[in-house]
Amino acid sequence: MAWIYLVIAGLLETVWATTMKLSHGFTLWGYTVTTLLAMVASFLLLERAMQHLPLSLAYPIWTGIGAVGTIILGVALFGDHLSSLTWGFVALLMIGIVGIKLTTS
């Protein structure tokens, strides 16, 4: 169950990062409230996951899911342009996240 909490927490990190941008400096209240709720939920689920997973695994996986998810949403929603080399490094990040999970007992 801890891994499920961690994945959901990472996905919520992408939600709050995206809605923070959409809030235009916290001037649009709907996006601002969504940002704050997603932040709180993400942190609470991370805390729940860390009750059963070591910090040295949970935190990097949480940030990795958030980073990769935010990159994908930035490209899909905001038209961010990444070079082929950057996509290669994103792939390495994903390989690292999966590798951490697969090598954890």
TrEMBL record:
<feature type="transmembrane region" description="Helical">
    <location>
        <begin position="85"/>
        <end position="104"/>
    </location>
</feature>
<dbReference type="InterPro" id="IPR037185">
    <property type="entry name" value="EmrE-like"/>
</dbReference>
<dbReference type="InterPro" id="IPR000390">
    <property type="entry name" value="Small_drug/metabolite_transptr"/>
</dbReference>
<keyword id="KW-1003">Cell membrane</keyword>
<feature type="transmembrane region" description="Helical">
    <location>
        <begin position="58"/>
        <end position="79"/>
    </location>
</feature>
<dbReference type="Pfam" id="PF00893">
    <property type="entry name" value="Multi_Drug_Res"/>
</dbReference>
<dbReference type="GO" id="GO:0005886">
    <property type="term" value="C:plasma membrane"/>
</dbReference>
<dbReference type="GO" id="GO:0022857">
    <property type="term" value="F:transmembrane transporter activity"/>
</dbReference>
<feature type="transmembrane region" description="Helical">
    <location>
        <begin position="27"/>
        <end position="46"/>
    </location>
</feature>
<keyword id="KW-0813">Transport</keyword>
<keyword id="KW-0812">Transmembrane</keyword>
<keyword id="KW-1133">Transmembrane helix</keyword>
<comment type="similarity">
    <text>Belongs to the drug/metabolite transporter (DMT) superfamily. Small multidrug resistance (SMR) (TC 2.A.7.1) family.</text>
</comment>
<dbReference type="InterPro" id="IPR045324">
    <property type="entry name" value="Small_multidrug_res"/>
</dbReference>
<keyword id="KW-0472">Membrane</keyword>
<protein>
    <submittedName>
        <fullName>Uncharacterized protein</fullName>
    </submittedName>
</protein>
